[in-house]
Amino acid sequence: MNSAVGKDTMHQNSPHTVTVTYAGGDERRGPLTMGQANMIRCILRDDPTHINIHDVWPVPEGTTSAAVIDALRALAVRHEGLRTTFPHPAGAAPVDQVVAAEGTFTVTVLDHAELPGDPAEYAESVARAARAGRFALGREFPLRITLLTVAGQPTYVALAFSHAVADGSAMAILREEFAELLAGKELPELTSLPPVDLAAVEVSPAGLRKSEASLRYWERILRTAPQEMFAEPRGRRPGTDEEARQLTLRSRRGSRALAGAARRTGHPEATVLMAAWCALVAHRAGQDSCVTAVPSANRFHARVARSVTTTSQDALLHLDVRVGTFDALVARTWGAVLNAYRHSQFDSVRLWEMIDRVTAERGSHFGRDVVFNDVSALPAPLLGTDAQDRDDAEHAEQAEQELTWGPPQTLPTRMLAFTYRTAPQLHISLWAAPSVFTPEEAEGFLAGLVLLLEAAAAGDVPMEALAEVTGVRPAERGPDWLRVNGCWVSPDAVREALGRAVGGLPVRVAEEPAPHGTEAGADGSAAGAPGAGPHLTAYIARGATPLTPEEAHRALTALIPAAGSGVLAPHRYVLVENPPTEPDRSDAWRRLKTIDEGTGRSRQV
User: Fold this and answer.
1) How far, in Å, CA of 114 to CA of 148, rounded?
2) Element containing residue 22 per DSSP (H, E)
3) Neighbouring C-beta atoms of residue 312, cutoff 10 Å
4) Sign of the C-alpha dihedral, residues 202, 204, 206, 209?
C-alpha cells in the first residue's frame, strides 16, 4: 500500500453506519447441521482471526450506494443462512439454529477522496481486519459489511463472515449473485437446501446411517494410516502451528500438461491432479500412502452444491501409492476420492471423541498434516479479490510459468494448497511449513508437480522414477528410524518423550518382533505374521515409584501432541525395579526381573 497516499486520502469523511432493514422471509428453528456444529466448535475455541473468513466484492462503475444496499438486502432475504443466529446459554455450545423472518443489519461506509495505492489490496486489508473479534453467535448478524466509496461512488464491498453460516463455496455463490443483482438479472429459484432442511436430512434414518458409515471409514484410516505425513528429524508435531508464506504457481505449461494427461489417461483433470498431488506428497514424505484432507469435497451432492451455509467438514483421502506406474495410481485415485467424498458427512463431536479414543489406544496423535482444496470447479472461484482475476489474465499472456511469494499465514498444518484455476493456466497457492520445507524446497515441489504432469501427458511414468522426473527428493531419516504400525518412528525420540512423561525415570526403548495375536499391521497383515513389521517395547526402571503400564501410557499420550516428530507410543511397557549396569543394551534390560507389563491401553492392541 502507498502509505503517503493512504494518509492523505483514506478518511476524507468520517465513517458512518447505515442500518438496513429486511423482511419477507420465514421464521424457522431447528437443530444444527453437522457442518455448523463442526465450525461452531472451532469458533468457540480458536482465535477469531483464524476461524472467521472474508471476501471482497467489486462494485461496477456507476452503481449507486442504494443499489448496493438493495442487493445486500435481497441476499439476506433470499438465503436463510444469512438470517440465522445460534442462541445458547452462557458457557454452553449452541444446539439449535434460529432463522429470523425480519431484522436489521448494518453497513459501515468509508468514503475517500481516492483509494490508497493498490485499491484491491486496500479493500482486502479492510475485509481481513474485520475478522478480528469473535462473532456473538446468539445475536449478531453473521456478516460485517464495509462499503468503500470514492466521493460517494461505491467501489468495493469488504466483508467478514462468521464461519458458522458460510464457507468458501458459500462466499463464492454470494459474490456471484451480488454481481448478477447489480447487473439487473433475476436470480433463479433456489435448488439446494437451506440449513434447517439440510439438518433434517442429516438426522433422518438415512442421514444417521451415512454419518455412522463415515465414522467407521475415518476410524479405519486413523488406526492404520500414517499419523504424520512429514515424520522426519527436522519436523514438528502436527499439533504445533507454524507461520508459512504463501507461494503461488501460475503455469500455462502446467495447464497444458494437466489437460494432456487427462486426455491420455481418460480420467477427469481433477482426478489426475489429485493423483499427482498425492504421488508427490507421499514421495517427498517417504511414505507408502498419502493422507490428505479435502475440504471442498462435501458439496458434490446437488442438495448442498449451492447452499449458502457452511459444509466445512473434511473428506479424508487415504491413497496407497504402492503401484508400479502413475497411470495405475490415477485409476486407483478415482475410487479412493469417491470413497472419501461419500464419507465426508458426520457428527463432528462424535468424530473428535473417536479420534481421541483411537489415538489414545494407538498411542499417536492424528494430525491434519496435508490439506488440498481444489476450488477451480466452483461457479465463481474464491480468489480473494477481483485483482487476482485480472492478474490471472495478465500472467497468462506473459510468463509460461512463474512462482511468486506472498504474505505469511499461521497454519495448524504442514502443507496447505488451494487450486484456483486449471485453465488457461494452472494456478495453485501453497503454504508449506518451514520446519520441513525450505523456500527452495517449496518452490521445487510446485515446479516438480508441473514436471510430473508434463511427463504424464507424454506417457506413463514409473513411480520409482519420481525423483528423477520431478527433482523432488524424499525426506532423509537416520538409520535408527523405523516404520512401526504404518508410521515412521524414531525410537530415540520415543525414549526421550517417555522419560519426560514418567518424571525422568530410566527408560530403554527397543525394537522387537510383533507379538502373535496383536492388531493387524498397516498393510493388512496380522501383526505376528512375517512382514508385519517391528513393534516397540519400553523398559522402565520404576524404582519405588508406584507406576503401572496404564499410567505410563496415559502420561506419554498426553505429552505426544507437544513432543517432537516421530513419536508413537510403544506397543508394550515392561516395568523393572532398577536399570541394568549396561543401560544402553536392550538384552541387558530383557534379563531383568519384570515387576509388571502390559500395553497400557484400555483396548488391547
Assistant:
1) 10
2) strand 16-23
3) 23
4) positive
